[in-house]
Amino acid sequence: MYVNIIYIVVAVAILALWGRFLVWIDNDLPNMPEQPALIWKGTLLGSVAILLAIWILVPNFWFALILNIFIPGALLGYYWRTRVQVLGSSGDLLGVISGHMEQFSAGRRAKKSVSQLGLRYEGKGGRPLHLPAVEDPGYNGVVLLDQLLIQGLENRAQRIDLMPSSQAYEMSFSTDGVAYPQSGMQRTNAEPLIQSVKQLTGLSLEERRRPQSATFTTRDADNNPVHWTANTSGTTAGERLWLQVNAKDNWKMPLDHLGMSSEQLTALREALQGNEGLVIVSSPPHMGRTTTLYSLLSNHDAYTTSINTFEINPRADFESISLTRFDPAAANASHSKALQSLMLKDPHVLMVAQCPDAATAELIAKYSREEHRVYVGLRATDALAALELWRKVLPDNQVAATPLRAIISQRLARLLCPTCKIAYQPDEAMLAKLNLPIGRDLSAYKANTQPSRDQKGNLIKCPDCASLGYRGQTGIFEILVINDEIRRAIATGRPAEEIRTLSRKNNMMFLVEHGFRKFALGITSIQEVIRVCTPDKKAAKPKASVSGNAKASADQSGKIPGQSQAGATGAGNSRAGGSSAGNS
Predict the structure, then answer these.
(1) For 403, which of 60, 92, 161, 278 could close a Cys bridge (C-beta 3.0–4.6 Å)?
(2) HSE-up of residue 547 (Cα within 13 Å, Cβ side)
């Protein structure tokens, strides 16, 4: 009985191996087109029938075994000889078998290396990135990168910075526009990590000075994708790395999602009626200017209207909107001449991210008077400061005033975490200081600065904000609508204080007032309003924790800003909207 079982098992095993090899030969025959494929296939299939017949008809086990080894061996040897004659040395089956074994081994090593990581790594088109094997020297850098990304995601970081210093690497996580310093990283760990990022994303390993950028995607155990933009550049202390999360997606927001009040949104939409005119969007750096500019563009129908942007560093891709990049480092680069060349294409709507000189301002003013809508970004502290800057670069007040339709100024304030924020009633001294009615029953909240701990003393993180006290951002806005009365005042060179009075007469809400309204509604904290609206940003900068889990607290001693600041400076390009970590 046992002999029969062994007989059957050996017969099935030989037939299965020979059948598997015949499948490979069938796939390999196209490599030798001059060979008669039908004759080969017929002979090989006939050999299977002969082997099966031998096992059935020959009662002697050893004799049947010899025949079943000899027949496949003879056919294999003849095919091997034929393959070498046709293909030369590359036709040697030993090389083919060795290559398959190496592929199999590499696959097992790659599978082992992936199994030890918490994230899966993909390139363009969702193709898995080639990870080094566990025994490769570069694998430790991938493990460090994996740990860093997981830690950043746990802390809701929208940007991770590794900055070289004289001794080690400083590290920070930026969340909702605030950088939280983390424990530093030794050079022996940071440099292999950076090299691993460059190797995974296809960046040049030899280039350590010039900026490089690439993208990749990670997926967690639940298959949730996160898109990363890796940027490297050289410094005097070494190579720097910063990683941004979902960089392009964060710049696209509808106009009514930016945080304007209903009154502001209505007034702005009325000012934007028509097909011509100039709208200025102003803010300090990293306070949402570019996203607001993009949102204004998305308010137009891109299928019936020609829309162009003119930027040094376009932040996102938009369907049916043409993005024009200006390179200031190019030979004979001129901002105004490049803009003039774009205007020759006659786009109906044009966004100019910055206005660095009078020549650019004159082009913008002229173009926006000729049945074109132009949106321009300026770096200024508030709407009146932006107006003064605009008048400064255009000495002719009439030219400056004619195309103006509205001036938008803004800040980005963090939203209180809805899960862990703490309700409280502000004391009368604070209400008086903020010029809010004393005795008013406010829906005031503050960030939870005392996170709870379990019985063992371990910190219990808030599931929504990772115990930072804030989650997300909202805009604080000031919108100066240019009506006929204000336009005449601008054209005749009236001082800023007089224009302020006229804007107040037209019910304009100033920045700090909009911020206080959001505080009174429980949307953000008063400390956050003071932080982003205080002119001296250094005095109001949040205190960041070393661990990344502690709260950022605004400096409440900072002076509350007045309704306007005269100190407008330069022109720039910043991002806006939802989460704004790592703006440029």
Answers:
(1) 278
(2) 8
Both 494 and 434 in one domain: the answer is: yes
| pLDDT tens digits along 152-172 | 998 899 999 999 998 899 999
Instruction: Say which residue the tokens 């400076």 belong to.
Output: 569
For residue 60 the two structure tokens come to 């002697």
Domain membership flag for residue 576: no
| pLDDT tens per residue, range 201-223 | 999 999 999 999 999 999 988 88
Burial 11-42 (b: 16+ CB within 10 A, else e): beebbeebeeebeebeebbeebeeeeeeebee
Amino acid making up residue 512: V
This prediction's pTM: 0.72
CB atoms within 10 A of CB 376: 25
Are 140 and 67 in the same domain?
Answer: no
Looking at the structure, do residues 40 and 184 belong to the same domain, yes or no? no
With beta carbons less than 8 A apart as the criterion, state whether 568 and 379 touch: yes
Fill in the DSSP letter of residue 128.
B
Contact 408, 477 (CB under 8 A): yes
Domain range for 25 is 2-91
- Rg of the Cα trace of the chain? 34
Contact call for residues 218 and 129 (beta carbons, < 8 A): no
**What's the CATH code of the domain at 180?**
3.30.450.90
